[in-house]
Amino acid sequence: MSTARNTRVEPETKPAAEDRYAWQQDVTGFGAEGQARLREATVLVSRAGGVGGTVAVYLAAAGVGRLVLAHAGPLRLDDLNRQILMTTAGLGSPRVDIAEQTLASLNPEVAVETVPANIDAENAAALVDRCDLVVSAAPLFSERLAMNAAAVASGTPLVDAAMYDMEARLFVRETASDPCLACLYPADPPQWKRRFPVLGAVSGTIGAMAAVAAIQVLTGMPRPAAGRLTHLDFTTLTLRQVAIAKRVGCCVCGTARPV
Amino acid sequence: MKVQVDATGQLRTAAGWGETTVELEDGTTLRGLLERLAANTGALRPHLFDEEGRVQPSLLLVVNGAAVAGGAGAAAARLADGDRVSLMPPVAGG
């Protein structure tokens, strides 16, 4: 037996621009003030791959004011299992150009600046200094450590997100009292290999967590990731946090004292 | 004494296990545990020690949930029966 449904149709009206963020402004501790802070923020993301691309998606969706994306090179077919900003049609095109198009289609209110280069010791300071927060998601420690050094020097908060196989990590340095990435990794580890095992869903998960951490820092929400290494293990579906101390004699953040 | 050891990242791949129990002489240090693991599984050695035999500086050692203060340099810390040791090598997959 069929039942008549109440199918009242609301009159069509053009949504106001601010409706884009209406639901997230209901989030506890975020509100209109958090939205305004986010709109004023500039965030550097390096690179726009499986982790960084996911960070960029969620920061753009949330309404960050300006994204600076740094990533060299053209899109390859073997990027596409994880680099969700990319498209098959974009194979062979510069990754940052495809990323910019994808983000513009998601949220045209966000200014996207592309840097067709990877971060190194030469360009890090110039890029980091004009940002309110940096997201470190490069597959090489030399890039991550260059970003960290520039972030420490300029007092810019840093969110470092990384993964390997079925594990992922998040590390946040917000203030000078927090340990820096070089406290955790004092040297470029020789065992690390540029090619790593990756499921896109794993890199995307830690990318989404990094976006949350970035939003927390930028908007003044509680920041449970700061000063700790958060480790996510999908083989056991467990998450743990380890408090990291500033390394005595750290060559980057430097002012460490024995505790 | 027995200690529980878990390996993450490339160490897990090299070891072929995520968790194991290691039986050690009483008073064995954290470095002694690492030496035992490297002796049992040669593929672990470059992840645990550098070419000069020092514990890898970027290897995070965690005992009973707490990072070992001073990093790898504090590998002289003595272990106790029932300790849980986590070996967390650097990770940079992006």
Which key features would you list for this structure?
heterodimer, A: 259 residues, alpha/beta, Rossmann fold, eight-stranded mixed β-sheet, 7 helices, 8 strands, 29% helix, 17% strand, globular, B: 94 residues, alpha+beta, Ubiquitin-like (UB roll), five-stranded mixed β-sheet, 3 helices, 5 strands, 23% helix, 23% strand
Large-scale geometry of chain B: globular
CATH topology of chain B: Ubiquitin-like (UB roll)
What is the alpha-carbon Rg of chain A in Å? 20 Å
CATH superfamily of chain A: NAD(P)-binding Rossmann-like Domain
Count all strands of chain B and give the number.
5
Oligomerization status of the protein chains: heterodimer
Principal-axes geometry of chain A comes out as globular
Overall description:
The complex is a heterodimer of chains A (259) and B (94). Chain A has seven helices and eight strands. In chain A, helix 2 (52-62) crosses helix 7 (200-219). Chain A is an alpha/beta fold. Chain A has one domain (5-159, 186-226): Rossmann fold (3-Layer(aba) Sandwich), CATH 3.40.50.720. The mean pLDDT of chain A is 93. In chain A, a hairpin with a 4-residue loop joins strand 7 and strand 8 (238-243). Chain A has helices spanning 31-39, 52-62, 95-106, 124-128, 141-154, 181-184, 200-219, and strands at residues 42-46, 66-70, 111-115, 133-136, 158-164, 167-173, 228-233, 238-243. By secondary structure, chain B is of the alpha+beta class. Chain B has a single domain (2-88), classed as Ubiquitin-like (UB roll). Chain B is built from three helices and five strands. In chain B, strands 2-1-5-3-4 form a five-stranded mixed β-sheet. The longest helix of chain B has 11 residues, at 30-40. Chain B starts with a strand and ends in a 6-residue tail after the last strand. Chains A and B meet through strand 5, strand 6, strand 7 and strand 8 of A and helix 1 and strand 4 of B.
